[in-house]
Write a structure and sequence with these properties.
The chain has 182 residues and is mainly α. Helix content is 67%, strand content 0%. Helix 7 runs parallel beside helix 8. The radius of gyration is 24 Å and the shape is elongated.
Length: 182
């Protein structure tokens, strides 16, 4: 029984990963993360039972099988990260933000600033505070709205999005931003 447990569990998880469609990927990813956590807890429970096992040979076998199972779960976590990305998004560091800000600010015209920002923001995640910082680099409301719209899909704290409206002066600009980021 112990020998096949890691392979069976890994097969179950991988089957679950590939059986769902792309539209359910986010939900599936969360479910799989939860299941991985459950397996970690079950492994801990198994480890707690080992000392109660009377036979030393059985205890050694259980430790080997648990180690194999932990290795399989680790491989599963690596596979999930390759498929769905990191479990927790990595936010742009203050150093990276400073480099982006400097690169954007070094451009003289908004078209070039947008080109630099678009390139620099590719594949990055931002907080709403960082979006506010980048919006301040642009002088005109229309440009600030464009920055916010561009970065909105990459925001990790959408519950704080309301703070972005403070970078805009006119209510009509705030309304436009609301409409474009729904």
């Amino acid at each position: 029984m112990f020998k096949s447990a890691p392979a069976v569990i890994l097969s179950f998880f991988l089957g679950a990963v590939f059986s769902f469609g792309a539209a359910e990927a986010t939900s599936t990813s969360r479910q799989l993360e939860w299941l991985v956590e459950e397996v970690h807890e079950d492994i801990d429970d198994l480890k707690a039972l080992i000392p109660a096992t009377g036979n030393p040979q059985t205890r050694r076998q259980m430790y080997r099988e648990i180690n194999d199972l932990e290795g399989s779960v680790f491989e599963l976590e690596v596979a999930l990260e390759r498929i769905h990305g990191p479990a927790h998004p990595v936010v742009t560091s203050p150093e990276e933000l400073s480099r982006i800000r400097d690169a954007v600010a070094s451009e003289n015209f908004s078209a070039e600033q947008f080109a630099v920002l678009n390139s620099a923001s590719n594949g990055r995640k931002f907080t709403t505070a960082q979006v506010n910082t980048l919006m301040q680099l642009f002088n005109f409301s229309d440009d600030r709205i464009e920055v916010a719209v561009m970065l909105y899909p990459q925001v990790v704290d959408p519950q704080n999005w309301y703070t972005v409206y403070g970078a805009l002066t006119f209510s009509s600009d705030k309304d436009e931003l609301r409409q474009r980021t729904r």
